[in-house]
């Protein structure tokens, strides 16, 4: 399962990590480059991303399907594929549109993981 993630990462310059987590932020599968920020791959960070998406659902604008956060040197793009969260970490100079275009491919990969999470 990791090989398709590495292939997707190679399609976007500056994309440093793709992580699939359960609703508690526990990493199920991840692929990352050596330059990926270590703190962004920790369970506590990933759980916070999931919680932020949950809070977004409470804004009254409908379900929060994706979230883009921009920081000084990084950007974080997350997709809500309940019960999974897909988190992508990239440099701040990476093309956000190209990262968002990976959504369909990532959703396909998440289908097999979803069945594992739903049964546990």
Automatic annotation (TrEMBL):
SMART domains, sorted: MAPKK1_Int
One function term, GO molecular function aspect: kinase activity
UniProt record, GO biological process: cellular response to amino acid stimulus; positive regulation of TOR signaling
Listed SUPFAM superfamilies: Roadblock/LC7 domain (SSF103196)
Key words of the record: Kinase, Transferase
Record's GO cellular component terms: Ragulator complex
Matches recorded under PANTHER family: RAGULATOR COMPLEX PROTEIN LAMTOR3, REGULATOR COMPLEX PROTEIN LAMTOR3
Family membership noted in the UniProt record: Belongs to the LAMTOR3 family.
Official protein name in the record: Putative mitogen-activated protein kinase kinase 1
Lineage, top ranks: Eukaryota, Metazoa, Ecdysozoa, Arthropoda, Chelicerata
